[in-house]
Amino acid sequence: MKKLNVSEPLITSSPTIAALFAVISRQDFADHWVANNFNNLLFIRNDYENRCIFMEDQPSNRETIFSELNFFRYNRIKYDVVNYLSDNILEFLCRSIDNQYYIRVAVDNFYISANKKAYNKNHHLHPLFIYGYDNEKKEFLAGEFFNQKKFDYYSIPFDEVKEAYCHSEYPKDETEEYLENIILLKLDDAYVPEPIQLEKIVEETKSYLCGKDASNKYKYRRRKRDSLYYFGIECYGQFMDDIVQRRVDTRSAHVILDRIRILAYKLDILHRHGKMDKDDFGNLNKEVLELEAEALKNRNLLLKMLLKHGGADYSDQEAEALKEKYESLREKEKQYLGNFVDVILSNSRIG
Q1: Going by fewer Cβ within 10 Å, which terminus of the chain is more open, N or C?
Q2: What is the Cα–Cα distance from 6 to 25, expressed in whole angstroms?
Q3: What whole-number distance in Å separates Cα of residue 294 and Cα of residue 289?
Q4: Which helix (H) or strand (E) holds 262?
């Protein structure tokens, strides 16, 4: 058996983010990068989707976040190149693991028995995160969102992965070009952590509170599927509108909860690295943990409401009641972030 290190991801609101945090959660080498990022949210609205995501889930190119991380050695290989160089995909994947590479490979879940929703029912192309294999059992060790549930770890037979790979048909849409590649990721032993950038954290937090994108990441980007983009605190308003209009995507509720969880983690990082004293940390930590509890309660209320009605056939009163709870959460988060920025400014020379 060969198994690379993974842990329970800190946040799991998307497959890409979950795979990333499966590798870096609670790892000292990634502390500074996590502290400097995850400061803003994006709400995408178009004919295909209406949902909230982390800014980091939509990199500036047509790849994924992994291409932008300095602590990974990143390799992107076209499927046709892999097929030309190796006539045995199983051998290629195992050798990659042997060489300390985590793998992201898009496969057709029609052939993956662990995915009860798709197996022998629906052809669904989706990246599989592979971090190990067992030669005796003839299985890969992988992480995925199967059966519309949370990210989890699975053992997947070699022959299923081979079938799912060999029968995959890749999309022509260039916005999903990353599905045409096998991504190999190795932690870079030579990586020197970037400094914690308090100026960046403050600027992007203020940008979040103003509903703007301080990074200008989307300023010149071609609009994906003619999308409308909303940023920061405005994501709450879009999400609440979707609750009332009965078109809510539950992934937005997961993202809002995960954002508050990452705020708590970032706060802990800043305290551990001497950017905040014990008293300020204690006060802010109490606030953010209360926010997390409220966001979790709201998310669960939404899921129970949808389950109760078998979908979005809930009453106007139920919709308004849940909307009010998210309005309250939004105002409390704004208050927390204002206090957070004040503490950072009072403990630094940032103007």
Answers
A1: C
A2: 9
A3: 9
A4: helix 250-272
